[in-house]
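Deliverable D5.2: sample structural annotation.
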Amino acid sequence: MAQTKDGNESRTATKKRPNEESSPDKERTITGARAVINGLEEQGAEVVFGIIGGAIMPIYDELGKSDKIRHVTTTHEQGAIHAADAYARVTGKPGVVFATSGPGASNLMTGVANAYMDSSPVISFTGQVATPLIGQDSFQEVDVRGMSDPITKHNYLVMEPKEVPKTIRKSFHLAQSGRPGPIVVDLPKDVQMGEFTREEDSQDEKEFKGYEVNPDVNGQEVEDLADSLLAAERPVVLIGGGIAQAGAESELMKVVEELELPVASSLMGLGCVNSRDPHLIGMVGMHGSGPANKAIAKSDFLLAVGTRLDDRITGNVEEFAPRAEIAHVDIDPAEMGKIIQPDFPVVGDAKKVLSSLNDLVEGKGQIDKEWWGQIRSWFDKYSMDSKGGESVLKPQEVVRALSELTDNDETIVTTGVGQHQMWAAQHYEFTYPNQLITSGGLGTMGFGFPAGIGAQIAAPDRPVVTVTGDGSFQMNIQELTTAVRERLPITVVILRNGSLGMVRQWQQLFFDNRLVETLIDEGTPSLAKVTEAYGGKGISVAEEEGLRPAMQEALNYDRGPSVVECFVAEEENVFPMVPAGAANENFILGEGDA
């Protein structure tokens, strides 16, 4: 028996949690900080990404006593939240982030907005100055709740320790139910350190006025949709990321195969239909395929499922599917008519709606084969193929080579934002939902590499590759420290063209080739050597002959991150391209068209 500080005996054979003491009063009381960790453990959180700071130190102190939660220290808060975002998309569970007050919290906001635009369930816990100091411009104080209000599904400023447990339960419920989204929980330091009794935890949870988790599907609306779909001669299905979030890919394919429907995909929907499936006609939108954009423009019925129908998809709204009746299926009623007014608005879970739709169309025939003949003629006319040569490394060929070398059902692909993102979308063969982890709505440069970190931690036994550019990679290059420290075998393929390529492309095509502040090669070091300096593996390649061996060497490296720096043709541009304000069917195929 061992003596405690108050002289009582305790049995050392029974392992107590480090925060537990034998006093009955201590067993009845709990701090706000301890309640945060208990709440995360109760919700099944296994990983937290973040950076410690003064205002969140009490929570970190309690985190250090937990044997259930792994903490991944990143080098910047933006890296932490992008990693948590990818972790959520891969696992289907909320990603969790810790950050301190002031600059720590404000550094998260780009990632919060990114998660909001892409409907990703990320819960951020931020430290805040003590409640008496709020509103006084105190050291490292910012209005986290006000700042995050327009870019979160919901946010909280917790003013009493006893409110912590139910706030955590509500946060997890809100983040992952209905249309997923980010939650921010702001915790003043005195709330973290303050105590409450366990009896004060009211246990009232999941009470939200006006919030429907999973609205019932209106059967008549689906019947009306089915009747018009069956009557159509030139139907097209347009899918978005909501298919993956609902786990509705099987229900989707039953309808598609039953009626032999052509399917176009948004960027976020890639992988929900296997790239090799003959029903897939390509990505739609600004850099979509010719067949997909032409088919939607000429369709007489468009079934859009799990997509926001945002401007990158529609192009000129007035000329988007101008001859078609439009059905829009989405779990969020706010999306109905926000951009496109549908003829058949159906609010509901995509899995439920498509299952009901399949029951209504089963055995009712298939679409006219002449429509498929027209679509196939567009494949012949509008090819995206771009052959490389031995002396110039083409970015399209880099992506195709990567796709061939990682041809399996396990690889996860993350990207930054820019030309490389579009080349990855166009030329990598995605075979399953959420295989592509990218920034769709916000278009966040620097997303790809920290997202790769989150994806690799979420799926340690699966290959993770990041496709990025020299501009995008350098925005969060500091996370090489994280990847090396955690020994994460991420393969990063950099398409280095010495510029902020997508902006340079616009300057070249639409601003008389006035390249203002987009050329960045001067002053940019060897990114392969920088990787080596961090402790990873760096490889440079400039010719097609050495491309595949270099990539395979990097893919085989398993002691940490590897970077393949590919010096690609500097003025290569992404085509097809829909100019701003143009109809999607009026895409251009090269510089001459612009």
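Annotation notes: The two ends are 84 Å apart (CA to CA). The chain has three domains: 2-200, 219-381, 395-567.
The annotation will be released with the project's public dataset once the embargo ends.
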